[in-house]
Amino acid sequence: MSSAGVFDHPAHAGNGAMGNGTDAAAAARYAYAATLLGPETFQRMQTAKILVVGAGGIGCELLKNLVLAGFSNIEIIDLDTIDLSNLNRQFLFQKQHIKQPKSLVARATALQFNPHVSIVAHHANIKEPRFGAAYFRQFDVVLNALDNIDARRWVNRMCIATGVPLVESGTTGFIGQVQPINPSKSSCYDCESKETPKTFPVCTIRSTPSTPIHCIVWAKSWLFVQLFGADDESEDEELDKALQEGENKDEIAALRNEAAEMRAIRKELIDAVSKASTAATREEDAIEISDEVRAAVRRVFDKVFKQDTERLLRMESMWTHREKPIPLDFEQAKLQTEVVAPAADPQASASKTNGEGSATASTNGQPADGAAASRLRDQQMLSLKDIVELFERSTATLALRAARSEESLSWDKDDPPALDFVTAASNLRSHVYSIQPQKSKFEVKQMAGNIIPAIASTNAIVAGILVLQAIHVLRADWNRAKCCNLSRVSGRIVTIFTPLAPNPECGVCADAYVELAVDPQSVTLRQVLADVVRAPRAAGGLAYGSGGDFDEDLELELSAYEGTRLLLDPDFDDNADKTLSDLGLTLGKTLTVVDEDNKWVSVNVLIGEVPLTAELADRANQSWVLRGRIPTIGLKPQPKKQAEEDEDDQEIEVVENVAPTIAGKKRSAAELEEEAGAAAETETPADEEGATRKRRRTTGGPTNGEPGPATGDTSAGESKRARKDPNAVGSSADDAIELD
C-alpha cells in the first residue's frame, strides 16, 4: 500500500535538514500502522493535535503508545516531579531523573522512541489561566491520565465548555476504566457522583483517636508541621470552625493551649540543635552530638505523650463512653523490649501457644529472633523501646535539617527521617490510646502517603485501550467508542459497554457555556448581564429572537456566582457596577449566571483574553466578543410530579390466572389442556374482587415466585441496568473489543 502524502506533516518539517532521509525513515517506521489502519485514518492521526493531561503511571504508557502508533502532534501537561517510588512502573523515568519534572523528562524519553514527532511539554497546573478555553479549543481530542478528582473535573468541564472530545481513564490496583466522552451527546465525568476523599474531624485527630489512621494523620499533618513545617496561620480558623460546629469548648480551649506550648517547644528544639550543629558533619550524627539535643527531644516526648494526655484526662466528661488514654513515661517506655506481634501473624501466635514467649528486639529497631529477622526490614514490628529510640533519632535529624535550612520542611514519604518520625510518633500515640495493631514502617508509608496500589500491567492495558478509543473519536466513529472496565469481578478481564446518555440533572454538561473575550478592567458585571446574557442574539447576546431574556421571560431574576461565591442576586446588587477585575473575574475565571426560578439552564461565561482589534472592527461601541460556538440556552427538564410517578408505578395489568411455565420449555397440546383445567378448578372467588388477577407491572425481574422473561428476552429496564453495570455479563456484540 502506498503511503505517499501520509507523512507530509508540519511536525516533520523541523527535521528538514535531513531531507528525504528523514521522510523515508518515518515512512518505514509507520508502514505497518498505515497498512492496518488505512490511509485516511492514519492521515488523521498524523494531523490531529492531541493533549495528554498527566505524565504518571498511565501517562508514561500512553505517551509511548502515541508516538509509536503514529500520532505526530502531542502536548503533555503535568505538575508533578519524579519520586523514587515512581520508578517501578513509570518506565520513562530513571534514577537520575528524581526531583525533575515528569512532563519534561517524559517528552525527552519519548523522543528517543520516535524522533519524528512533535511533543510540547508543560511543567504546570492544568488549572492555570493560560490553559483556558482558547487553549483547549485547539485540540482534536484530550486524553486524561490524571490521579485526582479535582483535576479530572476541571478538564471535564473545559472539554464540555469547548466541545472538545475527552477520553477519561484511571486505574487502582488491578482495576481500571476508560470512558470516551462526546460533549452534549454522552454522559460526562460528573454525570455520576464520585466518592469524596475521607476527612476526619479535628477533635478526633487531636484528642480522641480510635484507629491507626487517626494517629498517622495526626503525626504527619499536625505534629510534623508543628515541629518542622511552616507556621500554620489557619490553625486558629480551624479551631474556630470546629467550635462553631459544636465541638467541646473545653477541648478546643485545651487544644489552643497545646498549640501555644508546641511553638515554645519547637523553638527550644531548634535552638538546641543549632548550637550543636557546628559539631555535626552529618544529619545522622545529631542525636549523638550533645546531651542538650537529647534533652530537647525528651521535652517534645514528654509534652506530646505525657503532659497533653494528662491534661485531657482532667476533662472527665470526654471519657464517659471512651477508653481513657494512658500517659507514656519516657524512662518506663525505654525499658519495654517486648515486640507485640500482629494478631494475624500465625508464627507469633504459635510461638506464644508453645510457651516460647514473645520475640525480643535488639537495639536500633532490628529484631533479634530469626523469624522476625527474615521479614523485610520495613515490615518488621518494633518494641516500644525501639520506637522511642526511632523517635529520638528522627526528631533530632529533622530538627538539625530544619535549623540548617532557610525554608520549612515538608513531609515526603520517600524521605527516610520523615517516614521514621511519622512511624514512631503514630505508634507511640497508638500505644497511649491502646489502639491496635501496631503499624510497620511499610504500612505507615502506604497510609500516610495515600498510596493507591499501582500495577504496571494495569496501566499498560488502560493506556492501550485509551489509544484505541482515541482513534475511534478521531474518526468520529462514536458507534465504536465504548466505555471499558478492567476488572475480574465478572469473570472476564475487560468488559465494554455503550456510553450512557447525558444526565439531565448533571451540574456540568447540562449547563450552557460561552467564552467571552473581554478586558475585565473595562466592563462591569451589570454590562455583562445586560449586554451578553439578557441581550438577544441579533444584538450579539445569548437570548433568542429580538425580545431578550431568552425571549419568553422578559424580566428574569438572575443571580451571578464565581465558583460558590455570590456576586449578585435580586436582593443584592452592590457589585453590579464593579468591573469584572474588581470582582476577581480575570482571565481563566468563570462567571455562572443562574435563573432564580430554576426554569432555564445555568450559563457559564468563561472570561477569555482581551479581544483583538480586528474582532471589534465591525462592532460599534462594543468592547467584547463571544468566541466559539454560541450555546443553546434551553429550559431545564422538569422533574415528574410525585402524583404522576405514583400513577406510573401503580399501572396495573389485568391477566387471567396462568400457571407458571419454565422459560424455553415446549409443551404439548395435552399439557396445555391439563394446565387450563387446573386453572379453572382453582379460580378465585368473586368476593376477592379479583385481587390476585391484578399484577403490578415491574422492571425489576421476577419477584415472589413470578416467572421472569424467557432466556434471551431482555426488558428495557434490564437493558439499561446492563449498560450501567460494567461488570454485567452479556452476550451482545459489545462484549468483544473492536481493534479496527
Outline the structure in words.
β1, α4 and β2 form a beta-alpha-beta unit. The chain has three domains: 230 residues, NAD(P)-binding Rossmann-like Domain (Rossmann fold, 3-Layer(aba) Sandwich); 247 residues, Orthogonal Bundle (Arc Repressor Mutant, subunit A); 116 residues, Structural Genomics Hypothetical 15.5 Kd Protein In mrcA-pckA Intergenic Region, Chain A, CATH 3.10.290.20. It is an alpha/beta fold and 740 residues long. It has 23 helices and 16 strands. It is 38% helix and 11% strand. This is Ubiquitin-activating enzyme E1-like. Keywords: ATP-binding, Ligase, Metal-binding, Nucleotide-binding, Ubl conjugation pathway, Zinc.
What can be said about this structure in brief?
ATP binds at residues 54-59, 78, 86-89, 102, 147-152. By secondary structure, the chain is α/β, with parallel strands linked by helices.
> Please, what is the CATH homologous superfamily of the largest domain?
Ubiquitin activating enzymes (Uba3). Chain: B, domain 2
CATH class of the largest domain: Mainly Alpha
> What is the residue-mean pLDDT, rounded to a whole number?
76
CATH topology (fold) name of the largest domain: Arc Repressor Mutant, subunit A
Round the Cα radius of gyration to an integer and report it: 33 Å
Which strand order spans the largest sheet, edge to edge or round the barrel? 3-2-1-4-5-6-7-8
Alpha-beta content class: alpha/beta
Q: Supply the number of helical segments.
A: 23
InterPro entries: ThiF/MoeB/HesA, ThiF_NAD_FAD-bd, Ub-E1_IAD_1, Ub_act_enz_dom_a_sf, Uba2, UBA_E1_SCCH, Ubiquitin-activating_enz, UBQ-activ_enz_E1_Cys_AS
Biased composition (Polar residues): 348-366
Protein name: Ubiquitin-activating enzyme E1-like
Binding site for ATP: 54-59, 78, 86-89, 102, 147-152
